[in-house]
Amino acid sequence: xPLLSSTTTYYVAAxxxxxxxxxxxxxxxxxxxxxxxxxxxxxxxxxxxxxxxINRCAIFGAGTxxxxxIGIKDRSGALIxxxxxINVTMAANATTATLVPLSLSIPNPDSGYxxxxxxxxGLTTLNRNxxxxxxxxxxxxxxxxxxxxxxxxxNHPNYYYFYNIKxxxxx
Length: 171
What we know:
This protein is mostly beta strands. It is built from no helices and 13 strands.
């Protein structure tokens, strides 16, 4: 603060960034409940109750020279954010999480958002779950997973690809 010789008004704003997570933590241990299925425009539908930024997620897959491009679409299917091609070093096996760094901003609370795999290279396996979960998931949090997306089917019962989704909110 400079030396004050007259009345001066200063304004201060407080922002606290809170880190949270939504979705399934992992694929589970019951082999019959998960399987590989790689396809673009597959993923999850979700609702946000606050503006959020998705910082990272985990995927369970295998491959070499892997890149993924993950996108966020709004309720009309318009792409509002995408990661671009991210180089990913996959875990030793498809049942071990591989973290994918993201910075996907969702500025407006709304329903009908989709987090989908837009494109990929090098993947030979990408796991999803067909059982062991009930929608909605994380229903008391700012990001509520409401269903699976399978190429335009927005209420698919499977849980596709994106696990332990970490995001921040400005509160």
